[in-house]
């Protein structure tokens, strides 16, 4: 058995931690001292969507607890193979909004660039778990097509870097891409959606912070934190470096059954985010991606949770409850009556 307390990874660079992430369920269970004989069926789910999780994220999980809310986000389960009506490979119909490789244009005034197909963690509820990264993994030459698309449309004021995880590439790659975006006069905001401050906080080096903050654009970073347990001291320090560089920090969560679908859990998350200078932004209903139906929380339960949160927290700590619908002009807020 590989002991959980083996902390060799803490002395490694972020690149070493990335390449050495856990990809084998047996290694994961050994780290958490979970009985392999009680392991749920994973083989078929692994073939569909492989396991990927860094040691730094596993270290935040409880020993011996199959129901740990962080473990449940990344543990492959046989339930993923069940077919459900309306759960499809492309729930947001992004293929219809993919005019050039690596670029998605769904909403007026902003576009999304797939800065990297690589992710440091495979969240089992990910709406892009079936995304065709093979045709959306542009070379630097191909980036020119995406940049020309943006330059030709003066209504685009914000470029969103996504993935995969947009912080997976080296600093030099990001610096070159950001400089090209900043050279487009009508773009004034760079938004970055990432899980790395949570799952691989070593990635947030001073040099990366310099790359993300030394250009003319307003920089916004949206982390994807679903549970307060994801924020440990290393993550808090990483977020502090970003905040000190005047990067606006927001959070969006996905409402997930058995992980954060209790009012106290969501209240604690908002308070913990505020402790580390991150403002709650969105609480999403699950996108109906094939393989994730077991995480679904229905709209009525979601609205009840929001009422409980609003009764406890000040308005600035209450995220907007939204769902995303194909073809809509924006995310759709759920009305509280």
Question: Could you list some keywords that capture this structure?
Answer:
12 helices, 30% helix, 337 residues, 2 domains, alpha/beta, 15% strand, nine-stranded mixed beta sheet, single chain
Topology:
Elements: H1 14-19, H2 25-31, H3 43-48, H4 55-58, H5 71-74, E1 103-107, E2 110-116, H6 140-151, E3 158-163, H7 171-182, E4 189-194, H8 196-199, H9 206-213, E5 218-223, H10 233-244, E6 248-254, H11 263-275, E7 279-284, H12 299-312, E8 320-323, E9 332-333
Parallel strand pairs: 2-3, 3-4, 4-5, 5-6, 6-7, 7-8
Antiparallel strand pairs: 1-2, 8-9
Helix pairs in contact: 7-9, 11-12
Kindly describe this structure.
By secondary structure, the protein is α/β, with parallel strands linked by helices. It folds into 2 domains: 8-81, no CATH class; 94-333, Aldolase class I (TIM Barrel), CATH 3.20.20.70. The protein contains 12 helices and 9 strands. The protein has a 9-stranded mixed β-sheet. Helix 7 packs parallel to helix 9. The relative contact order is 0.12.
How would you briefly describe this protein structure?
It is built from twelve helices and nine strands. The protein has 337 residues and is of the alpha/beta class.
